[in-house]
Give the backbone structure.
Amino acid sequence: MTNTAKKCLWVLAAIAVVVTMAVAAQQKKKRETPVTAISYHMNTMVEYRLYGKQAQQAYQAIEAELQGLEDAFSMHLPESEISRLNAAAGGAPVEVSAQVMQLLQACVRYGEESDGAFDVTVAPLVEEWGIQTDHAHVPSQDRIDALLSLVDYRSLCLKESDGVYTAQLPHAGQAVDLGGIVKGYACTIAREIAENYKVTGGYVSIGGNIMTIGSTPQGRPFRFGLRDPRGSANDFIGVFEIPGETIATSGDYERYFEQDGVRYHHILNPATGYPADGGLLSVSVISPDGAYADYMSTRLFIMGREYALKNLNNFNCGLVLIDQQRRVYVSDNMKERFTPDDPTGTYRFEETA
Ligand code: ADP
Ligand code: MG
């Protein structure tokens, strides 16, 4: 064998070693097992899938933080900051943490932005309707009118003085309910923690509000189904790709009761005191900001089909709307990331451009 031929062989052998090592590394990554877990917080199921060397620590830190959020924001734990604020309605201001203050301030901003469609003081009405409780019923018009007089986010008084935050509900009977936003907010907190622990990919789903981070070990974005609002929990009519954002969905199918053939669901229109009836079955919002996505899905569901469709491409987020005629509308920025896949064949995927 000539010297040149020997050199060639060495070079080939070296290339083979490098390629083998790269393939092995790639396969190891593909075999990487994620941390998967299910837990319950804020009255809903939380599902995890996290990849990365510190995924386990990330999971534990997120769990601790979710518990902390629940302790602060719960309407059911009598000692939570929100319960104390509600119990003091009509009385003196209550001291709250910076975190609770931040979210209450966001809610007031969102109240203004939505002309009161999203109203964090809707709680007395939510409580009266009792949807998904053992006292679910259609209240009398007198009762609705009386409770509506308590619903006004503008009356929530938020103050800061020397680093001390206080909140006050001026009228007895008033109460705040952060159920329309707190799960999305929790998604953003979960993302921050996952990033701190260098999670390379994964998702956390908090009652269907899903935040994703990075990509799968194969380098693909995480994919999630769009619920068929008239199917069961495992029926989907399309697939989203969500790279590093949060998706929140509001619909009339999750929590409701039926009376005399009418469906009464849990998203209330503060203009009427009744469940919102804006012609939509569901609204999905995709944004890097989880609280914003959660708020927007509730808001647009309330403001209804005409408004949401007119503004389909005007918001700083992705949108997928399903209306009562089973027409599906997708904002331009989601077209590449949403694939219709309707096994029932009953939904129409509309071109709106
Ligand atoms: P889910 O909590 O089922 O994911 P949403 O994010 O749309 O759905 O939030 C619905 C919750 O928001 C209700 O259960 C109630 O606690 C609260 N809510 C209902 N109506 C309003 C409203 N008009 N403004 C703000 N929050 C509302
Ligand atoms: Mg919401």
Notes: The CA atoms of residues 87 and 261 lie 36 Å apart. The longest strand covers residues 44-51. The two ends are 69 Å apart (CA to CA).
